Amino acid sequence: MSGPADGYRDTPLRPYVITGGRARAELNLALETLLSAADPPQPLPVTASAEMRDLLQMCQQRISLVEAAAHLKLPVNIVRVLASDLIRSGHLTWRSSPRAEGPSIELLKEVLDGLRKYKV
Amino acid sequence: MVSASTRSEPERYLPGTVERSTKILVTGDFGVGKTTLVESVSEIRPLRTEALMTKASEGIDDLSLLPDKTHTTVAMDFGRRTLNDELVLYLFGAPGQRRFWSMWEGLAKGAIGVLVLIDSRRLQGSFEVLDQLELRGDSLPFAVAINEFPNSEPHSDAELREALDLLEDTPLVRCDALKDPNSCIDALIALVEHAFTAKEAAAR
Prior knowledge:
A: alpha+beta, 3-stranded antiparallel beta sheet, 4 strands, B: alpha/beta, Rossmann fold, 7-stranded mixed beta sheet, 7 strands
C-alpha cells in the first residue's frame, strides 16, 4: 500500500540534523513564498551549514521556497526552517505571504485575466 | 509530451518584477493525470519536491520527531505560470488519498482552491478526496475536472454529478490533460471563477 510507486515512502532521514535540532520554522512560510538574497549581500557566519550556504546561493535571484527546495533536493520542510533562519538573520528577504482568509477578490480577478490571456 | 518538447529549457528564476505569488492545488487519485495537467499549464518543466510527514498525522510543518522514529516523505510535483509582470501562479499536484490529509493543512493555507481531477473509469478513486474537501467545510473552493481518456465512458454531466454526489454549485468540467492544454486552462478558470463568486457572495 505504501510502495514507492505512489510517491510515498518511509525514510530514516534525520531532518533535525540539518536544521540544527529545531523542529519548526519560526516563520510559517508558505511553499510559494518568494525569496531573494538581501541586497547588499550579507556574509554568512563561518558556522553556517552547507545547506544554508546552498540555499542562500540559490536565492541570488528571485525564487520560490518550493523551487529552491526542489533544486537543492531537500525536503521542503527543512528548507522552510533554513529560510526562516536566513530571514531572521537578515540574509534573505521574502515576499508574498498568503492571507489566512485566502486570496482577495482583486487577486482572483488578476488570476482570471492572466489565465484567459494564456489560452491559445 | 507535446508541451514539454516544444518548450525551451525553463528559466530557473522569476523576473525581478514578480512581487506576488499564489497557488492552486490539483488533486485526485494516483495516476489520474495530476502531473500531466500541471505540465500542460506550467511554463517550467514540472519539478518534484519532497515533504516530510509524521505518521502521527501532525501535519507537514512538524519535524519534531524522535530520533528513532522514521519519517514518511511525500513527493509532490509542481509547476508555475507567470500571469503578469508581478504575479506568479503555482500549481501543486497534491495526493488525494486519506493518509495524506494531514499534509493538506500547510499546503492549502492561502490557496485559491482545489481542482479535483477525476478519471471517469474509476470514480470510486475520487471519493476519498471529495469527502475530505466537503468535510473541511471551510473556505477552500473546489471544482471537479474529468480527465478524458481515449477509452473513457461517455457519461453525461448529470450522471457524473449524481455518481459523485456533487453539490449543485460545484463546477464540473472536462479536460484532456495530455492533449489539450487549453482545456486545462479552462478547468482552472472554472475553479477561479467559482472562488471569485464565493468570495463575492461572502463579501455581501
